[in-house]
Specification:
Blueprint: H1 5-20, H2 30-37, H3 40-51, H4 60-76, E1 79-80, E2 90-98, E3 103-113, E4 121-122, E5 142-148, E6 166-170, H5 173-181, E7 187-191, E8 221-224, H6 227-239, E9 243-253, E10 256-264, E11 269-279, H7 289-308, E12 315-322, H8 326-333, H9 336-340, E13 342-348, H10 355-358, E14 361-365, H11 399-414, E15 419-421, H12 430-434, E16 439-445, H13 462-479, H14 484-514, H15 519-538, H16 550-572
Parallel strand pairs: 1-2, 5-6, 6-7, 7-8, 11-12, 11-13, 13-16, 14-15
Antiparallel strand pairs: 2-10, 3-4, 3-9, 5-9, 10-12, 14-16
Helix pairs in contact: 1-16, 2-13, 3-7, 3-13, 4-7, 7-13, 11-13, 14-15, 14-16, 15-16
Length: 574
């Protein structure tokens, strides 16, 4: 290829920068101050407070957690927004909205096989056994025959009288409840643990679930059972001793939904922001008391850095605690002016795991990139699951690689494993993406205690809380203070990452062609990755709150040209 003089200058500039090692020799200045200030043990204290509470939006445990966050924010120096002076850059507010449906909370419960002395299930040790929205039994409980209906499909009910009885089946409690109650059952029990929870090992684990809420005043109840309880119930049925004594106490009442929004106001563009979100509801320690505790410690750390003058944000940094997806979605959509200013979003969900105990790996769930279209090589979906995306659903942006790079720097420093997974959805990063905003999820999976009552405090690692909090906060501090050098460093990082990815995909495609895949299909994969990085680099300038300098613009063009030429050279080798 023949280059113009302008192209040659761009390439020479880029090569010189690469040789000088600007990127490698420019460590992020925020790592040292965040590592010194952010404390995993302090985050763990909040996790310990929150995980003791059974949390659903509007209920006692949820509200106590919100109040705890507020008190800690005040101690850190955040001022109630309604009372803040213009000089108060650390502010918070609690938003209150009436819930459209009553909230719910469990109080106590037990299930005992008739003729036995000890409960088969007891709420004190199986805190997920009562399905969300369940009504109470009479105070003395009730004794009734249990009828087994297999998978609980309509055909499984044929020839079985369930009116006035307890229905027991295997699979989704929600659907089973609807079919059983419509046939006159007084209550429903279900077993349906996924294999990754290892039920034959964790024989007393129960995943929480829900039943539909009735508005007609005829609400019944549902019980979720463990592997051990399932086998005991089946033994009783097979012996003909199929009666259970069930006692449940729950509360359901009208309430408000509370959301905490804390902000560090930017100096130059306060209406533009980086938004963190951690949901409060769900009863687990890792899910998601760990996100609550980590984000609170990040907010406290940020306040300290502001007071010391170490952090002077150009854009606003926002911390959000609320009801999963609901609160984040509302924050983005209810104020169109505010939404226009959202530059980046990040969800902290299940971020504190002791991986030696849970089996889950720390993961960065990426925005939709080509790995979500062609998931191969080391890219793998988790057991949460993800569908293959279309090329048109790819979202080119530097945010993926920027966050991965910072997390891997922390991983190298702390000897901490950092992995990624293609986009799957299902947490607070989804509303950002649906609103066409960059959004990522920090989490762990596959976790054998996911959504079970085994997700308790002993499964949480203060060190993991510290590692996740550090890389998440360093990301936000860097982006909200970004300058021309930040963009140029990121351009170099992106080129290096693109080279590695293209080499990996080339090797995979060569192997695929040898096994019979079409050459043109494999070339499309490489070209899609090429375009992804070229278009992602184009967006680097949105970090800046000032016009792009000539040097920065030149390096962006050089980075894009480098990837074009690198890909062309690789494709010519086929």
């Amino acid at each position: 290829m023949t280059y113009t003089q302008s192209q040659m200058r761009i390439l020479i500039c880029f090569v010189l920068l690469m040789i000088s090692g600007v990127y490698a020799q420019s460590p992020n200045r925020f790592f040292s101050v965040v590592r010194k200030e952010l404390n995993g043990e302090r985050a763990f204290e909040t996790v310990s407070f929150v995980e003791k509470r059974w949390r659903l939006a509007g209920n006692t445990g949820f509200n106590e957690s919100i109040n705890h966050i507020e008190e800690k924010l005040k101690v850190a120096g955040f001022v109630l927004e309604a009372k803040a002076k213009p000089t108060n850059r650390l502010r918070y507010r609690i938003e209150k909205r009436p819930l459209q449906k009553p909230t719910w909370e469990p109080v106590s419960a037990s299930v005992t096989i008739d003729g036995t002395d000890k409960p088969l299930l007891d709420f004190t040790t199986n805190r997920n056994m009562v399905a969300i929205n369940s009504a109470s039994t009479p105070p003395e409980g009730l004794l009734a025959e249990v009828v087994y209906v297999g998978k609980g499909q309509a055909t499984d009910f044929e020839g079985k009288e369930v009116s006035g009885k307890i229905v027991f089946g295997e699979g989704s409690l929600f659907g089973l409840y609807q079919r059983a109650i419509s046939r006159g059952a007084i209550g429903v029990m279900a077993y349906g643990l996924p294999s990754y929870t290892q039920p034959e090992k964790n024989i007393h684990s129960i995943q929480f679930g829900s039943i539909p809420m009735s508005t007609a005043g005829d609400q019944k109840w549902g019980i979720l059972v463990s592997y051990h309880a399932r086998n005991r119930i089946m033994d009783a049925i097979n012996r003909g001793n199929a009666k259970l004594h069930v006692k449940i106490a729950t509360k359901s009442y009208n309430a408000e939904e509370l959301t905490v929004v804390a902000e560090v106001l930017g100096r130059e563009k306060p209406d533009e922001r980086f938004v963190f979100s951690a949901h409060v509801q769900e009863p687990g320690a890792n899910d998601n008391a760990s996100g609550v505790g980590t984000l609170l410690e990040m907010a406290r750390t940020t306040a300290q850095l502001v007071k010391k003058g170490t952090y002077k944000p150009n854009r606003t940094l926002t911390f959000l605690w609320g009801d999963e997806i609901v609160s984040t979605n509302r924050y983005i959509r209810e104020d169109t002016l505010r939404a226009r200013g959202i530059r980046w979003g990040m969800s902290l969900d299940m971020v504190g795991e002791d991986t030696a105990k849970t089996g889950g790996s720390f993961l960065i769930e990426k925005m939709p990139d080509p790995s979500a279209v062609w998931t191969r090589g080391e890219d793998k979906h988790t057991e949460w699951g993800g569908r293959p995306l279309k090329i048109s659903e790819i979202v080119p942006h530097y945010f993926n690689d920027f966050v991965i790079d910072i997390c891997k720097q922390q991983g190298k420093f702390a000897n901490w494993a950092v992995n990624t997974n293609p986009f799957e959805g299902g947490s607070d990063h989804t509303p950002f993406l649906e609103a066409k905003k960059p959004g990522l999820l920090l989490w762990h999976f596959t976790d054998q205690f996911y959504h079970t009552d085994g997700d308790r405090l002993e499964m949480v690692s203060p060190k993991t809380l510290q590692n996740v909090g550090t890389c998440a906060l360093v990301t936000a501090l860097t982006l909200t203070t970004a300058n021309q050098q930040t963009v140029r460093n990121a351009a170099l990082m992106m080129v290096n990452t693109a080279h590695k990815r293209l080499n990996t995909e080339l090797a995979l495609s060569k192997a695929a062609i040898q096994s019979g895949k079409k050459h043109e299909d494999e070339q499309l994969i490489l070209e899609t990755w090429r375009d992804y990085y070229i278009n992602s680099i184009e967006k680097l300038t949105d970090m800046l709150n000032l016009p792009v300098s000539a040097a920065t613009s030149q390096q962006i063009r050089a980075a894009q040209e480098n990837i074009k030429q690198f890909t062309k050279e690789k494709l010519s080798q086929w």
